[in-house]
């Protein structure tokens, strides 16, 4: 089953890093809101579920950062003759950092909007036996010390239907 989690994570990575993906949505939101939001470079997108303090200690981290991972696999065997037929619960964490509190939460919310725009545009067949029906949940965390001085994280979770 770990192959399913890795495959789902890679599909999400492809969608977010595609030319019409996350950075295109960031550009659109920047223009609409008249706010300068930096794009997210490939080295700022991680395919790991790792705490912010560990990332800062062990890896070179630039903010904003995005972490993609599979949280949970549920094999409900909806389709009798399939090896796996169920759901992959996916997580996308968006982390922003700033030296001041002012504007930190607003920037985080705009980046979350960019991620959810990509998800909204990606409803349907993702290939490889994965299908995204839509819907997600975004949870905003509190501000903590870290990063450039302050760090705030939001987590977007969604379910992929998987049939292999």
Keywords:
164 residues; 4 helices; STM4215-like; 8 strands; 32% helix; 8-stranded mixed beta sheet; alpha+beta
Task: Give a short overview.
This protein is of the alpha+beta class and 164 residues long. It has a single domain, classed as STM4215-like (2-Layer Sandwich), CATH 3.30.2000.
Outline the structure in words.
The protein has helices at 2-17, 22-33, 52-58, 104-121; strands at residues 45-46, 65-75, 85-98, 124-127, 130-132, 137-140, 144-146, 149-163. The protein has 164 residues and is an alpha+beta fold. The protein has one domain: STM4215-like (2-Layer Sandwich). Strands 1, 2, 3, 4, 5, 6, 7 and 8 form an eight-stranded mixed beta sheet that branches.
Strand runs, count: 8
Distance between the termini: 10 Å
Q: Residue ranges: pLDDT <50 for 5 or more in a row?
A: none
* Number of alpha- plus pi-helical segments: 4
β-sheet strand percentage:
25-35%
Q: Can you tell me the overall shape?
A: globular
Largest sheet: 8 strands, mixed
How helical, in percent, are the residues? 25-40%
Helix-strand pattern? HHEHEEHEEEEE
For the residues shown, what is the average pLDDT? 93
Cα gyration radius (Å): 16 Å
Into how many domains do the coordinates divide? 1
């Amino acid at each position: 089953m770990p192959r399913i989690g890795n495959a789902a994570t890679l599909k999400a990575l492809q969608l977010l890093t595609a030319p019409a993906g996350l950075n295109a949505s960031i550009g659109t939101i920047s223009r609409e809101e008249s706010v300068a939001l930096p794009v997210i470079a490939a080295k700022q997108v991680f395919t790991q579920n790792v705490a912010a303090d560990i990332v800062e200690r062990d890896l070179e981290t630039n903010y904003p950062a995005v972490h993609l991972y599979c949280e949970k696999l549920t094999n409900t065997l909806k389709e009798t003759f399939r090896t796996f037929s169920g759901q992959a619960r996916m997580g996308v964490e968006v982390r922003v950092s700033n030296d001041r509190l002012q504007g930190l939460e607003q920037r985080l919310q705009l980046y979350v909007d960019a991620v959810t725009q990509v998800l909204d545009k990606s409803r349907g067949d993702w290939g490889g036996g994965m299908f995204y029906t839509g819907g997600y949940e975004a949870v905003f965390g509190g501000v903590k010390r870290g990063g450039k001085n302050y760090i705030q994280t939001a987590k977007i979770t969604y379910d992929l239907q998987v049939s292999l």
